[in-house]
Amino acid sequence: MEKILDIVDAIAHEKGLQSANVLEALKTAFVQTAKRVINNNFTFEADIDNKTKKMHLFQTIIVVKDDDKRLEDEELSGGYIALSDALKLDEDAELEDQLQIDHNLEDYGRTAAGKLHNEIEYHIQRLVENELYSKYNSKIGTIVTGRVTLVDSDQNTYIEVDEVRAILPMKSRIKGEKFKVGDLLKALVRRVNIDKANGIQIELSRTSPKFLEQLLAMEVPEIADGIVIVEKSARIPGDRAKIALISTHPQVDAVGATVGVRGVRINAVSEELVGENIDCIEYTNIPELFVARVMSPAIISHIEIIRDEKGDAEKAIITLPADQKSKAIGKSGINIRLASMLTGMAIELVEQKGSSAQGDSPAESEQKDGVDALQALFS
């Protein structure tokens, strides 16, 4: 066989792998082939002969007494040698020494050569997949760009991303989206799996709130630089989203920076999300105030936070005028659902007693006083 180091360098260059990893894979291939061709019960090792630059394959065998019962066991005998026989190989052999018996796979003919070829292919492929797994596993939660190669009968979209093919399941596609072969699209790496049967599998998503956050980071320099932080986000893909923002710099308006001049930044993100409306909210750790902001555009009169035994906020009871209830709920309940998702609390709406949508009745005055009191509390 030609010099193994030449093979190692060639494979490493072709596959974009580390030479040391390729060498270990080849050693494993030689050992597994020896077990298959010679004896599966033998203990083999492989190493590089520094003089010839070729692979050195040897069997490790332990020296034992001539009457050792392990010599009579077919499954164990391959790992042991009687002292009398060992002395014929090495006159300095002693009990418990480990002798090395050389083997050359070329002596075992075409069968060995074929099995070695298959083993090398298998272990190099596993190495390539492991490298790709490490690469894309580190990209979970980030955006990749690829070109559509196939849309199957179940509307799952297959995308070529660099050297791998990823899948965008139907359930992870924004409502109303349709793709065709050749389309270029962005998606979030949601999950990376690897197994012997299917190799590496990368699942993408365009419906995850994290996809929205990553798009904002690409479009808004202040978010990419950490000056503005997306504290929380919630989406109903293709319809509407709410994001809670906080600024780490006193002179930077988190909402204004994210929206951009005339909405240019937020509109660019919305366009990528098939027209999804995005509400930007300034985050606060005061739960009552945060709930009030999240419930926009509804104007509310009072908020009561119900806490669990641990003191965590688990429910918000919101009192509001009757004419604000529809705004709080939103079309098909979208506003209240997003508010609940963003705050992590169940939300209960209670109509303000005696409220009215028309006239300047005493009830309406009372309602306005309640709103003013709430706003004064949060100011």
Summarize the structure.
The protein has 379 residues and is α+β, with helices and mostly antiparallel strands. Helix content is 36%, strand content 28%.
Sum up the structure in keywords.
single chain, 379 residues, N Utilization Substance Protein A, Chain:P, domain 4, OB fold (Dihydrolipoamide Acetyltransferase, E2P), GMP Synthetase, Chain A, domain 3, five-stranded antiparallel beta sheet, disordered C terminus
Q: Could you walk me through the main structural features you see in this protein, from its secondary elements to its overall organization?
A:
By secondary structure, this protein is an alpha+beta fold. It has four domains: 4-136, NusA, N-terminal domain (N Utilization Substance Protein A, Chain:P, domain 4, 2-Layer Sandwich); 142-205, Nucleic acid-binding proteins (OB fold (Dihydrolipoamide Acetyltransferase, E2P)), CATH 2.40.50; 208-283, K homology (KH) domain (GMP Synthetase, Chain A, domain 3, 2-Layer Sandwich); 287-379, GMP Synthetase, Chain A, domain 3 (2-Layer Sandwich). It is built from twelve helices and 15 strands. It has helices spanning 4-15, 19-37, 83-89, 109-137, 209-219, 221-224, 254-259, 264-272, 287-294, 325-329, 334-343, 362-378, and strands spanning 44-49, 54-64, 80-82, 98-103, 143-151, 157-161, 164-168, 184-195, 199-205, 228-236, 240-247, 277-282, 302-307, 313-320, 346-351. The strands form four sheets. Strands 7-6-5-8-9 form a five-stranded antiparallel beta sheet. Strands 1, 2, 3 and 4 form a four-stranded mixed beta sheet that branches. Strands 10-11-12 form a three-stranded mixed beta sheet, sandwiched between helices. A hairpin with a 4-residue loop joins β1 and β2 (54-64). α1 packs across α2, α2 packs antiparallel against α4 (109-137) and α5 (209-219) crosses α8. The radius of gyration is 34 Å and the shape is elongated. The N and C termini lie far apart (81 Å).
